[in-house]
């Protein structure tokens, strides 16, 4: 439900920049809020499509370790592989965290249905939230619209400060938070991609350096 | 219109790539290698950089709100979020109300 609040903000942000069908298509087909936000912002800044796709791909790299961690719990003998390939499309932060908590308590054959049920509900709720946010932004006074759009970045500031537990995560957040806006001043079209690469690599380098000295 | 649809589908493929790849390599590679640590750092920095940039230097609708109001509303949201034991919903609601109220006060309602 909280993820839906983020999508409310995304819908509101998309209004005036993207047609409604495009906002909805992105929720259906991408279903990853950071990637969608990056795509929207970069399109507005006038980035080259290839660069947008690369950047979105980088924001989605987190799904690889998430899928790898979740799959051994869901896989059962005799279940067709396509079912799992279809199910992982619905994998996103909220459903993943819930499944990692709940699945070990469930019998093996019930886990995939449970995951799909949970994730599908999320997916539909986010789709509805995208549409509602979009439509609200049109009909509400500018003041409330600004508040709705504000939800988008706020959602990530809160979830990142609150839920980041690893040392790598914290250092990378700090480096990215500084690098992103700085690079934006110099090169708006490049800021998302370069900010991530430079900030992330800097954080990684710092930690490698600390580890070596220790 | 076609270009926009292609862009979105391209981004969707680029996103699904990681989910599908996770399926393929599951159980075969170590996740704690330096490469994955680096990729994790880049992903964190990218999202943090984007979120902070939108707060500091917004485009579109949000650009009409003054910077101090955005920063104060963000600080209020963070405080409420942590006071309510990391309740994301309450935190976001507080940030929303704070921004709307602050901007309304400034414009003299």
Proportion of residues in helical segments of chain B: over 70%
Q: Which outline of chain A best applies?
A: globular
Roughly what percent helix of chain A? over 70%
Query: Structural class of the secondary structure composition of chain A?
Result: mainly alpha
Low-confidence regions of chain B = none
What Rg of chain B do the Cα atoms give? 20 Å
What's the total number of strands of chain B?
0
**Quick one: biggest sheet of chain A?**
none
DSSP summary: helix tally of chain B: 4
**What's the end-to-end separation of chain A, in Å?**
43 Å
Please characterize this protein's 3D structure.
The complex is a heterodimer of chains A (214) and B (109). By secondary structure, chain A is mainly alpha-helical. Chain A has two domains: 1-50 and 61-163, no CATH class; 165-214. Helix content of chain A is 82%, strand content 0%. Chain A has helices spanning 2-14, 20-29, 33-45, 49-60, 63-74, 81-88, 93-102, 108-139, 142-163, 167-186, 191-213. In chain A, 48% of the residues are buried. Chain B is built from four helices and no strands. Chain B has 109 residues and is mainly α.
Brief descriptors of the model:
heterodimer, A: 214 residues, mainly alpha, 2 domains, 0% strand, globular, B: 109 residues
Brief summary:
The complex is a heterodimer of chains A (214) and B (109). Chain A has 214 residues and is mostly helical.
Task: Give me the secondary-structure topology.
The complex is a heterodimer of chains A (214) and B (109).
Chain A: H1 2-14, H2 20-29, H3 33-45, H4 49-60, H5 63-74, H6 81-88, H7 93-102, H8 108-139, H9 142-163, H10 167-186, H11 191-213
Helix pairs in contact in A: 1-2, 1-3, 1-8, 1-9, 2-8, 3-4, 7-8, 8-9, 10-11
Chain B: H1 2-25, H2 34-56, H3 67-83, H4 88-106
């Amino acid at each position: 439900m909280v993820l839906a609040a983020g999508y409310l903000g995304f819908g509101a942000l998309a209004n005036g920049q993207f047609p409604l069908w495009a906002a909805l298509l992105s929720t259906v087909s991408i279903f990853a809020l950071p990637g969608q936000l990056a795509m929207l912002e970069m399109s507005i800044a006038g980035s080259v499509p290839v660069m947008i796709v690369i950047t979105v791909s980088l924001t989605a790299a987190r799904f690889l370790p998430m899928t790898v961690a979740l799959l051994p719990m869901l896989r059962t003998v005799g279940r067709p592989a396509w079912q799992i390939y279809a199910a992982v499309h619905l994998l996103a932060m909220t459903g993943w965290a819930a499944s990692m908590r709940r699945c070990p308590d469930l019998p093996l054959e019930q886990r995939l249905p449970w995951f799909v049920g949970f994730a599908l509900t999320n997916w539909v709720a986010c789709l509805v939230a995208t549409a509602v946010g979009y439509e609200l932004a049109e009909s509400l006074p500018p003041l409330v619209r600004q508040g709705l759009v504000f939800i988008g970045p706020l959602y990530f500031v809160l979830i990142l400060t609150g839920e980041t537990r690893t040392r790598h995560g914290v250092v990378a957040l700090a480096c990215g938070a500084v690098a992103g806006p700085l690079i934006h001043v110099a090169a708006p079209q490049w800021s998302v991609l370069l900010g991530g690469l430079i900030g992330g690599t800097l954080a990684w380098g710092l930690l490698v350096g600390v580890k070596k000295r220790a | 219109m076609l270009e926009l649809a292609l862009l979105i589908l391209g981004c969707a493929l680029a996103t699904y790539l990681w989910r599908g790849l996770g399926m393929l390599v599951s159980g075969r590679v170590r996740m704690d290698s330096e490469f994955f640590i680096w990729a994790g750092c880049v992903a964190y920095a990218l999202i943090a950089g984007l979120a902070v940039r939108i707060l500091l230097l917004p485009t579109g609708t949000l650009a009409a709100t003054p910077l101090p109001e955005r920063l104060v509303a963000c600080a209020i949201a963070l405080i409420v979020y942590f006071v309510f034991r990391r309740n994301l919903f309450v935190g976001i609601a507080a940030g929303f109300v704070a921004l709307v109220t602050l901007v309304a006060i400034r414009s003299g309602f």
